[in-house]
Amino acid sequence: MTTTTPEQVRAHHDGPTAGLADGYAQANLIAVPAEWAYDVLLFTQRNPKPCPVLDVTDRGGTTTVLAGGADLRRDLPRYRIWEHGELVDEPTDASAHWRDDLVAFLIGCSFTFESALRRADVPLRHVEQRVNVPMYVTDRECRPAGRLHGPMVVSLRYVPADLVGTAREVTARMPAVHGAPVHVGDPGALGIADLDRPDFGDRTAPHEGDVPVFWACGVTPQAAVMASEPPFAITHAPGHMFVTDVPDTAYRL
């Protein structure tokens, strides 16, 4: 656990944000040209489990009510720049790429419920091992919306078998940041062939008696960008989240 403040993370951190600014919500980012904004909004509305929206900016907006004074162009640790579904850059500052016609969506992140898991004595293997959380593209297609389509992405946390019920109960109380797991156990049921080869993030080593538990993930819009090939988009780099000033308790039922 760390006592780093959200403002300190936004100003100085350059890596994955799991375990940072304990007690504060974190968010995924996707910014698209206004012409594509309705497609994204409809996609999130139709797929609320992987894409729970916390805020949407006005066209050209670079700020959010989730963190006063923050700048979405430069206050994430790392960004991804997309052109026609292809990754073309991963800068630590997206100011040079930001456009006046962009609409930005802040989507709930499962890092938000990790402090609640920790308080319930559920271990976080990726935090213990100081690696990025592993994320996988599944064979579960999201409900399409306009021109946007693609598969659901999930994040994995290994949980001791006797604490899976606790993890499910704790996270179910926080639907705005993905809520309860979408699957427990056999990764093949999600079309995942090899847990040691995540599509995003890093491999996490399980402990004896751990069970793989999968939560819907806010990297899902990036999978949709790759599948749908909009002309331009800016996202966060997986695991490199926007740390807000909102207490995680604000999203707890």
TrEMBL record:
UniProt xrefs under InterPro entries: D-Glu_cyclase (IPR009906), Putative_hydro-lyase (IPR038021), UPF0317 (IPR016938)
Gene Ontology molecular-function annotations: lyase activity
Keywords: Lyase
Transmembrane segments: none
Entry EC no(s): 4.2.1.-
Keyword Lyase in record: yes
SUPFAM superfamilies reported in the protein's UniProt record: PSTPO5379-like
Pfam families associated with the record: D-Glu_cyclase
HAMAP family registered for this protein in UniProt: Hydro_lyase
Family designation: Belongs to the D-glutamate cyclase family.
PANTHER family: D-GLUTAMATE CYCLASE, MITOCHONDRIAL
Entries under NCBIfam families matching the protein: PRK05463.1 (NF003969)
Protein name: Putative hydro-lyase FHX81_6027
Originating organism: Saccharothrix saharensis
Organism lineage: Bacteria, Bacillati, Actinomycetota, Actinomycetes, Pseudonocardiales
